[in-house]
Amino acid sequence: MKVGVLAVQGDFAEHIAVLKRLGVDTAEVRLPRDLEGVEALIMPGGESTTISYLMDLYDLKGPIKEMAGMGVPIWGTCAGMIMMARELTDKEPTPMGLMDILVTRNAFGRQIDSFEADLEIKNLGHEAFRAVFIRAPVIFDVGQGVDVLAHLPDGKPVAVQQRNLLATAFHPELSPDTRLHQYFLNLK
């Protein structure tokens, strides 16, 4: 299996490192031609307005929407989740509308308000997953057909799945725990 990682900005190198530890063939995706032969795609965290601008500049949104519609597994982490949302509470960036979720950017405050939390994630067993939240978004609404996989103690969803699409508000690539990456690899 060849997994593409959107590499226009953000922490794409960390996702690639995890995938390589798992023995997965990877491709850095910067242009539409880089999507050729990709069987799954990760859209990493970073600065969402910059990622959106560069995706528009390099004409990546259309081909990625087509891939999602064809059932290709796509996973958005943090800013990637923002890009996958149907709608944001903010005016920018313009999300791609891949998942039926309403998202707020930087929901927990500034960089200093970043935190870690132990989550119980559906389908990963009973052992807690240590999640890293960095200027993280939060999901305020999920549509029908969206399965909440994990939430914070206050009930806010932070990991969701809709068919072949996965989104997390946190950064699994910054954890030594590879279970979420393995889960994503098995979506196909």
Architecture overview:
The protein has 188 residues and is of the alpha/beta class. The protein has a single domain, classed as Rossmann fold (3-Layer(aba) Sandwich), CATH 3.40.50. It has 5 helices and 12 strands. A 7-stranded mixed beta sheet has the order 2-1-3-4-12-11-10. The chain has a 3-stranded mixed beta sheet with strand order 5-6-9. Strand 11 and strand 12 form a beta hairpin. The mean pLDDT is 95.
Helices, strands, pairings?
Blueprint lengths: L1 E5 L5 H10 L3 E5 L10 E4 L4 H10 L3 H9 L4 E4 L1 H6 E4 L10 E6 L10 E5 L9 E5 L4 E5 L4 E5 L5 E6 L2 E4 L10 H7 L3
Parallel strand pairs: 1-2, 1-3, 3-4, 4-12, 5-6
Antiparallel strand pairs: 6-9, 7-8, 10-11, 11-12
Q: Helicity level, as a percent range?
A: 10-25%
Principal-axes shape call: globular
Number of strands: 12
Average per-residue pLDDT, rounded, comes to 95
The radius of gyration computed from the alpha-carbon positions, rounded to a whole number of angstroms, is: 15 Å
Give the topology string: H per helix, E per strand. EHEEHHEHEEEEEEEEH
What percent strand? 25-35%
Structural class: alpha/beta
